[in-house]
Amino acid sequence: MNLKFSKMHGLGNDFVVIDGVRQTVNLSSAQVRALADRHFGVGCDQLLLVEPASQPGVDFRYRIFNADGGEVEQCGNGARCFVRFVHDQGLTAKRAIRVETQKGIIEPRLNDDGEVTVDMGVPVFEPDQVPFVSPSREVAQSLQVGDEEVQITAVSMGNPHAVQVVADVDRAPVERQGPIIESHPRFPKRVNAGFMQVVDRHSIRLRVYERGAGETLACGTGACAAVVAGIARGLLDSPVRVETRGGFLSIAWGGEGTPVLMTGPAVTVFSGEITL
Ligand SMILES: N[C@H](CCC[C@H](N)C(=O)O)C(=O)O
Fold first, then answer.
1. What subcellular compartments does it reside in (predicted)?
2. Left (φ > 0), alpha (ψ -120 to 50) or beta: where does 25 sit?
3. 127-258 placed in CATH 3.10.310.10
């Protein structure tokens, strides 16, 4: 199978983006892993597949696969690249589109300044919906991580996140705690582990050990999850500037029951063709 693709990134969180509208694409988990491999394949944190919409009132379907081959519910940095891809590839003339994901509909929009704003939907704290095994609905809960006990906020942006507050992200135990939290038994679908440093009420620094990909230079849904966790814990006020290792995102949230708006860049690095 010959596959045309674009290599893109959102703040260094990088993607192989494939047009599944004008080419027939059926990838196994093993083929996704091979494409994502940074030595034997193209290399990426996630693979994004563009498909025709499967329901009225929506422009496209958006499927997301982590580098480990697993299909997941949502990808924020990918959503910004998605709308730039379908626009630049001539798959739509719209600058604002409605996109169906595994867990709901998101609305990315190309702004005149070249950045992209995405309505990422309404965050969910209900433990059963994250999913997170928890007897309590407290916004901050204890989690045993190896021989350490940490306070986390569990929240879904369509995909699951466990966010903790640290004094200094540069010294956060991302490599040590990340893999343990990612596969913690209290997260039945595994989880993305966020480490957030509160700089002031309108800015944070963030690192994320991503489910199925390891630490990435930026995580869009992770930035959304960290901001809503910080606001819910009374530490932040909207809007919040999020500094990631790959650059800056702006996140706005009006509070419970309202959607999260994320704004940031989306870059095409090159296009290519691969034979699988
Ligand atoms: N690793 C995530 C998917 C990619 C999310 C991230 N790259 C983003 O920008 O939101 C998960 O398993 O839920």
1. Cytoplasm
2. beta
3. yes
Could you tell me the pLDDT band of residue 103, with boundaries at 50, 70 and 90? Answer: confident
CB contact at 8 A, 171 and 185: no
213 lines ligand 1 (CB under 6 A): yes
> Is 81 designated active site?
no
Domain layout of the chain by residue ranges: 2-117+266-275, 127-258
Mutate to test the pocket of ligand 1, among 219, 227, 245, 249 (most ligand atoms within 8 A of CB): 219
Question: Quick check: 79 and 108 in contact, CB under 8 A?
Answer: yes
Q: How far is CA 195 from CA 93, 99, 162, 229, 237, in A?
A: 38, 29, 9, 11, 18
CA of 210 to the centre of ligand 1 (A): 6
pLDDT one-digit tens code per residue, 108-144: 999 999 999 999 999 999 999 999 999 899 999 999 9
Which ipTM was obtained for this model?
Answer: 0.98
pLDDT in tens, 37-61: 999 999 999 999 999 999 999 999 9
Q: What is the pTM of this model?
A: 0.98
Residue ranges at the known binding site for substrate: 13, 46, 66, 76-77, 159, 192, 210-211, 220-221
Can you tell me whether residue 111 is helix, strand or coil?
A: coil
Residue type, 110: L
Q: How far apart are CA 241 and CA 249, in angstroms?
A: 6
Residue type, 205: R
Superfamily of domain 2-117+266-275: Diaminopimelate Epimerase; Chain A, domain 1 (3.10.310.10)
**d(CA 199, ligand 1 centre) in Å:** 24
